[in-house]
Design brief:
4 domains; alpha+beta; 732 residues
């Protein structure tokens, strides 16, 4: 592989105008196709195989026009202090507001709270439910404006009015400012790392090209492949991350080759042949992690994973072709001015830098460093033992939002369960007496502990299906509510026998519970698939049994520590005020899956780039200890810079108001920090130092069976044309 990539790098460098024009042309064509493509579909958040989804589908079938998965709003009205909401002026104000909404755009129904008996026992609070014909993400601007205007009219009448539900579901905050900040911080880190504006700008430019091409393709193929508007979120984030990383790896190796006295053409070939090989296999590990999201069983996650994997493939191709082509235009200007002004043709002695000094420190105390790193990550991971997964709702939003204020008012007036009603669907199509069956279901559910009230059965036109709403005594994310859902489902078999009707529990609360359960069940299979395939790939890369196992175990430590940090902040409330967490609660169900997929890919990037340089030194005759020092001398600075860039990008999301995005920002930033600085820069050299030559042990039969991909570029000395005389660098 190294030989092929070496030739590819030389070709791209020599044909730089052609290569650059080809990339520009492809980007332009894809941009035009994206601009002309139909709007992306809304595939929603379907959960095939769950009871809640089965009930949603059945409701849409049996209650045509009911739009079971349509948006809804809940207006909460509170009378002024000392007054009742049932007082004539206040009641009239409420009814005018509800009547105004009943005729608004996309509204299918607005229920008068006084007719629906939706008034609190103390008479101070009432709520009105508004149903829409479309999903929350499809509400028109006119519909949301009408909702906000009606609420304001209620306030103008002297009432306190807040709006909950999904109708005002906040659209994801524009990431432009965060991405701009991340790019700016990345530029600063790259300038410090490379000491050259030209060298710092090149990875940013190529990353933008790769992300632009990837997002254009996702948009262009959206209607054909059923990719929703949210599919590209992960692709944009990871495409930018790995795009910068891979270009940095190639540019760094190119600079090292120039510093050793090689001409730019030869330096580009060797950079792509060596660092490019690491990029290929690092990219494959990321693709494995993202494609593995398909095993979770959630279509939206599978599409997000595949789209992001495609963007990573583009980032690899950009690094292998466009980066050396642009280096052909830049030449030696990629080096700092002081280095270029040094003696022409003389090799720059390679002395100890910070990376080499750190490696020597670890070599002197490998056991102490290893134990220190493992214990530190173990302590950080301890809170993860208390991990509670769920899908936080309005209760986790900032108190500055109307959704959170509506949640609190509803809880105060009616109890926390009113924020998470359960919809019990009674499929009595084969029952002897559908009405009797529905009544029996309502009676059974109302008698269960934890149920506050149950509404009378509401039948469809055919009279064979009924809906019963059950109000729990606890909030939507409370563990007792989850137990209640399972209890109702546990009675389904008995009710089927007694009445002949099938009972299904659905609603937003039940759907969230099912989503959390499905994600929890998929966690271990996903982890097994991703880690197992990556270990096999790393076995091929490093031709070692122990190094891939060490890489996987180190990754598990860093993810566990990051999850511990998330639990400590978002569940326990540690440092919550500092980062703006206003309400503790369960950790988002998708968090472990996302962290495993994203962080595993980035962690293996650092592992492959760092350890292949160590193995390169070992293969070329250095002792195990010398190879570790050589690898850290050349690549520790680059890995550190790449990690700082990723931490800065992810940490930018902590400042957003949406709790889920804030949680993802903290978790991913912490995971990258732990993995890069504790695992890769500390535990990895300590383990390699303790193992010595045994680190590279491979059974002979396996060595013969595995293809030789030559990631470290040992064949370049014979495959490459003889370059100009080069001085040997000073070695340790």
């Amino acid at each position: 592989m190294a030989t092929f990539l070496y030739r590819l790098g030389r070709w791209a460098f020599a044909r730089r105008k052609l290569v650059t024009l080809l990339w520009v042309a492809v980007l332009a064509v894809c941009g035009v196709l994206a601009a002309k493509a139909p709007a992306a579909p809304d595939d929603g958040f379907a959960m095939p195989g769950t009871e809640a989804q089965q009930a949603f589908d059945l409701m849409n079938e049996r209650f045509p026009g009911g739009h079971a998965d349509g948006a809804s709003a809940r207006l909460v009205f509170v009378a002024p202090d000392g007054q009742k909401i049932t007082a004539a002026p206040n009641q009239q104000a409420v009814q005018r507001t509800v009547a105004e909404l009943a005729h608004a755009e996309q509204v299918t129904g607005a229920v008068d709270p006084f007719q629906a008996h939706a008034v609190s026992k103390d008479g101070t609070t009432a709520y009105a439910t508004v149903s829409y014909s479309v999903k929350a993400g499809k509400l028109s601007d006119g519909a949301t404006a009408a909702l906000e205007q009606a609420a304001q009219h209620g306030r103008d009448a002297g009432l306190k009015v807040e709006v909950g539900g999904t109708a005002l579901m906040a659209k994801p905050e524009a990431g432009g400012s965060s991405e701009a900040i991340g790019m700016a911080l990345s530029a600063v880190v790259l300038v410090i790392t490379f000491g050259s504006l030209v060298a710092a700008g090149l990875p940013l430019l190529t990353a933008v090209v790769g992300v632009g091409l990837g997002m254009s393709l996702i948009t262009a193929l959206g209607s054909t492949l059923g990719l929703s508007s949210t599919t590209g979120t992960l692709a944009m984030m990871l495409g930018l991350a790995v795009g910068i990383d891979y270009a940095v790896f190639i540019v760094s190796r190119y600079r090292a080759e120039l510093a050793e006295g090689r001409e730019p053409l030869e330096a580009a070939g060797r950079a792509v042949g060596t660092a490019g090989s690491a990029v290929v296999f690092a990219g494959l590990t990321v693709v494995i992690a993202l494609a593995g999201l398909s095993v979770v069983g959630i279509p939206m996650l599978a599409k997000m994973g595949m789209a992001a994997a495609g963007t990573v493939v583009i980032a690899v191709l950009v690094a292998l072709t466009l980066v050396p082509a642009l280096l052909g235009f830049i030449g030696r200007r990629v080096l700092p001015r002081k280095v270029r002004k040094a003696a022409e043709g003389a090799a720059r002695p390679t002395g100890d830098n910070g990376g080499a000094r750190w490696a020597r420190f670890v070599l002197r105390r490998p056991l102490a460093v290893l134990l220190g790193g493992v214990i530190a990550l173990g302590v950080l991971a301890a809170p993860a033992l208390d991990l509670n997964l769920g899908l936080p709702g309005d209760e986790a939003k900032p108190t500055s939002t109307t959704q959170r204020r509506a949640y609190d008012l509803l809880s105060d007036g009616f109890g926390p369960g009113f924020n998470g009603p359960l919809t019990v669907l009674v499929d009595a199509k084969g029952a002897p007496d559908p009405k009797a069956a529905a009544s029996e279901v309502a009676k059974t559910v109302s008698g269960l502990p934890g149920v506050v009230t149950v509404t009378p059965p509401m039948f469809n036109k055919a009279g064979d299906t009924a809906l019963v709403n059950a109000i729990p005594a606890t909030g939507p994310s409370d563990a007792a509510t989850k137990d209640l859902v399972h209890t109702i489902r546990g009675h389904a078999a008995g009710l089927k026998t007694a009445t002949g009707a099938t009972v299904l529990v659905s609603g937003t609360t039940a759907m969230n519970i099912d989503v959390s359960q499905k994600l929890s069940d998929a966690l271990l299979p996903y982890l097994g698939v991703v880690v197992g395939l990556a270990v096999l790939l790393l076995l091929l890369v490093f031709r070692s049994v122990l190094v891939p196992l060490k890489a996987a175990l180190g990754f598990l430590l860093s993810v566990a520590a990051a999850l511990g940090a998330v639990v400590a902040v978002f569940q326990w409330g540690w440092l919550a005020d500092l980062i703006g967490v206003q309400q503790t609660g369960p950790v988002m169900s998708m968090m472990p899956i996302f962290m495993i997929g994203v962080v595993f890919g980035l962690a293996m990037d650092y592992e492959v780039f760092l350890v292949t340089r160590i193995r390169e030194g070992f293969v070329h005759g250095e002792s195990p200890g010398e190879a570790i020092v050589t690898g850290f001398r050349h690549n520790a600075r680059v890995v550190t810079a790449a990690a700082f860039i990723m931490i800065a990008v992810f940490a930018g999301f902590i400042g957003m108001s949406e709790p889920m995005i804030k949680m993802m920002g903290l978790g991913l930033a912490a995971a990258v920090a732990f993995d890069a600085f504790v695992v890769r820069m500390t535990i990895v050299p300590a383990v390699l130092a303790l193992l010595g030559r045994r680190a590279w042990w491979l059974p002979r039969w396996l060595d013969r069976a595995l293809p030789d991909v030559d990631v470290e570029g040992s064949k370049l000395h014979t495959a490459a044309p003889e370059p100009e005389p080069v001085r040997e660098p000073v070695t340790v």
